[in-house]
Specification:
The complex is a heterodimer of chains A (about 270) and B (about 280).
Chain A: H1 3-34, H2 51-55, H3 62-93, H4 99-107, H5 114-128, H6 133-159, H7 163-170, H8 175-204, H9 220-230, H10 234-258, H11 260-263
Chain B: H1 11-37, E1 38-39, E2 42-43, H2 46-53, H3 55-88, H4 91-102, H5 109-119, H6 125-132, H7 146-169, H8 174-182, H9 187-216, H10 219-225, H11 232-241, H12 246-277
Antiparallel strand pairs in B: 1-2
Helix pairs in contact in B: 1-12, 3-4, 3-7, 3-9, 5-7, 5-10, 7-9, 7-10, 8-9, 9-12, 11-12
The chains are: A mainly alpha (about 270), B mainly alpha (about 280).
Chain lengths: ~270, ~280
Amino acid sequence: MTAVEKLATVLIWTIASLAVIFLMAPLVITVAVSFGDSTVFSLPPPGWSFRWYERLPATRGLAASLWTSVQIAALSTLLALILGTLCAIALVRGMFPGREAITTFLISPLMLPGLVVGIAMLQGFRAFGLRDTWTSLLVAHVVITMPYVVRTVLAALSLFDFTLIEAARTLGCSYLQAIRKVLVPALAPAFLTSGMFAFLASMDNYPISIFFTDAWTKTLPIQMLQLVEERPDPMIAAVSTLLILLAVLAMIIGDRLVGLKRLADF
Amino acid sequence: MIRLLPRDRMIWLAAPALVYLAFFYAMPLVYLLGRSVIGPNGPTLSLFANFFADDYNWRVIGNTLRIALLVTLVSLVIGYPVALALARARGLAQVMLLTAIILPLSVGVVVKAFAWQIVLRRDGAIAQLLVATGIWDEPQRLLFTEPGLVIGAANVFLPFMILPIYSVVKLIDPRLSEAGATLGASPFYRFRKIILPLTMPGLISGMAFVFSLSVSMFVIPSLLMGDRFQTLATLTGRSFLLMRNEALGSATAVVLLVLAVSIVVGSTILSRRIGRAA
């Protein structure tokens, strides 16, 4: 290795190490602040306590918004899994024109500004006569969770060998048995992983949800931002820490199911 | 189901999703676009004529593009070396890098923007660090300043720069560079003639991702800049949520949409052309 190459290597690894610290900093600091006993955000905190967590259940609106978010996220993920998987099968197995364009269309809600999509939906749903907040939230969230499902299931299906289904048929399985015993297990990891990340995307969505909230129906991120604006104290960090914990859990499960490297596929 | 349906008729399996998206996603977008160019007396561009006639709105567009450009540059300078490191990393280093890139992706933007609010305060971590290392004489507030916004946004969008670049770097055959070295090419020449051209498609799509995310970000500037500083996205949000000014909001929303779509389409065409040439 020449001197220049050594220098480049050192430089790359220095930047990479600093980047790890930079990327993890907001999460680590949130967790640290949430366990502090000070009302201001001094770091490191003068002492440690659970006082911010103890205050969570009594905070007005928090439990209700969490429940709304969980319901919307679970139902929209379920609908997205059904619609998205059927569509992915058609895209991989089907022989019809425009498959590439359809894929782009399905993924596109992730690429357009969320706020603009939210406004369009607000006006569009009104024009359709859909005014119920909760239903509107659900309908909108299916649109933003579907891309996660389509992307991951599409990738898994394109690796799946469909002749295996024929083989199972030859060995005496009925059609539905062949699908249940061969296709479903092969797709299960992609199914679970994409479901998990779709769920999180719905739980965390702000720019679309903001247009479908009222005094009674709020999702967790909306309620959190409102609390940040009203009285920013470490209690927000406690809620955030629980959400970070959820993300850590999803990543560990995702790692077990498909591996970290596949999670990084783009 | 898979063989019961002939492969040319499989589009029926895609139909429920397509109808759903057409109805609840495409039609609202078309409706938004349509309403912005159709007035009470037929087609008109008066909404945009009014919007672009106002100097304030040009400042807002300037803010939006300047911040997005800076965020993209910062992410590129950090992200490119990190993608190279990730492609070479094995074992623990690989796990740590992957974790640091993927984990923040599944944490919501409200959580991260709130964390940066803490970090960027006058008594926050960055001010403490800069005073301790002697770069600053006394602590300063980074919150509600443009550098603070760029740092926070670059942090949130960095994974979208690293992952597309990594996806092309990991495909590069290391023997190419070795062959270049055997033939006497200097490291710099090898980088410029082998690595850089091969990573160009990832580079372009990473930059397009970060740029269009930065143009459209709403929560981050709301929390890190406050009301005095407006971008197209924050102005869009404010006009609908606070000012109840749907005319202004529709105009900014359409400008934002056109901007985002042209970035995505433009970058796709560009990276295809470069991919073919390479």
